[in-house]
Each structure stands twice: as C-alpha cells, then as structure tokens.
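Board notes (copied after class):
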Amino acid sequence: MTTSQSIDSFHRGRFHVVQPLGHGHRSGMDAMLLASLVADERPIRVVDLGAGAGAAGMAVASRLDNATVTLVERSPTMADFARQSLALPENARFASRVAVIEADVAWKGRERAAAGLTDDSFDHVIMNPPFNDASDRRTPDPLKAEAHAMNEGLFETWLRTAGAIMRPGGQLSLIARPESIAEIIAACGRRFGGLEITPLHPRPGENAVRILVTAIKQSRARLVFRAPLIMHEDDAHRFTSYVDDLNNGRAAYARKTVSARR
C-alpha cells in the first residue's frame, strides 16, 4: 500500500523530514521547541522517546555536532518515515549520528534492554507524549489516534522508562499541555528533581497552550517556574524574535540551573 507523504524543511532548510500527508501525526513547532531544550555542547547521547518521524531528535543532531541521537518509535510506519529522512542527501551531515529503534516506551527490563535501551546510558531524554485524553479520540485515522491519545498513567510509564535509561545527572526534557502539569510532577517523584517549567503563551494576556519542562535525574533541587515565553507579537502572526530563533535552531533554551553530568 502506498502511503502519501511530504518532505518538509526545518531550521530554514538545515534538515528535512519525510512525514505522512493527510494522515498520521505531523511534527511542527512543538518538536522544534522540544529540541531547543537540549543545550549541551559536549559529546552526548540523546534519546527521543515516541519520536514519530523523528523531527525533534533530528533537530538536536542538526544543531549539535557532538550529539548522538536514538529515535524510539513503536509504529513501524512512522519509524520508516524516520529512516527515509535519514537517507535524504540533505541530512547526510548528521545521519550517521542518528539511529532508529522500533520499540514501545512502556517496555521494561530485559525487553527494553534487548531493543537497545540499556539502563543508565543516555545523557538526555526528550519526549512529546500523546496529549489528548483517550475519550477524545475522535479521528478516524488510526495512526494519528495512536500518536495523540493519552492513556491513563502515561506520564508515569514514560518517565519510569526515562529514569531507567538515563545516566544520573542526565536531563529530561518534554513539551506538554498545561493541564498535564500535576501528572508530570507526580511522575517525576523521586526520579527527577530540579524541575523547571516554562509556560508558552500565544500572545500577551492569553492563556498558556503548552509547557516546557526540564528536570535532572536524582536532583533534589526545588521546582522553578520560569518567565513565560510569548510566541507572537501582539495581534500579528509573526513569531517573537527569540521564539523564532528557538524554532529555527539558532538558539537553545538552556536551564537556569545547570547540573554537572560527569
């Protein structure tokens, strides 16, 4: 069966991603903002959990020359899109530093390790988990439903895996809807501390539509709410200059408190 697809440009043409067209999940600004949370020039191992077509992980690899990235995706269809992307000539600059693993984030222990996700092996874990309540699954597109529908206990499951495969002192980064904040904090539990949460607002005076969250494995630092990021200038559709820089890989959104990894 032929699957409709498109080849989309990110970071103003610095890399390209093959994505489903007319069905499935298509990555955009959320993925680019997630990638901007990795602000580490050292040689690092990064894993993108639930990577979809791989846009966020590829954005990290494209921006950071010392990053080796693993894309983890359970859908064979979406994993194949990621592999097609890595084969594009436009991505040859970093393709050798990116690998694709077909695996379920919910896998545990030996099953997870057998897939290549061994304990205490990654410096950064990034994720953009499904954000809709399962009861809101109205789309007839099964690929999109799978990517967007949140199951009960999802954050507990995903953060359990993140905590297992991350080295002590490693950084968790995720983007989510504001209504998930309590579940995220609860799932971090004793696994992660030093949470830094940034609300993302469309315009001044409008409610937040996303939150950016970072945390450090085994940290005991207190939670910090950072100043909000404003996406657009007043009533215009133009992005603010800083958000545009984050979206296009010209800047990273570094933590206020940096934890020593080594």
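Comment from the instructor: The CA atoms of residues 113 and 119 lie 7 Å apart. The domain at 10-179 is CATH 3.40.50.150 (Rossmann fold).
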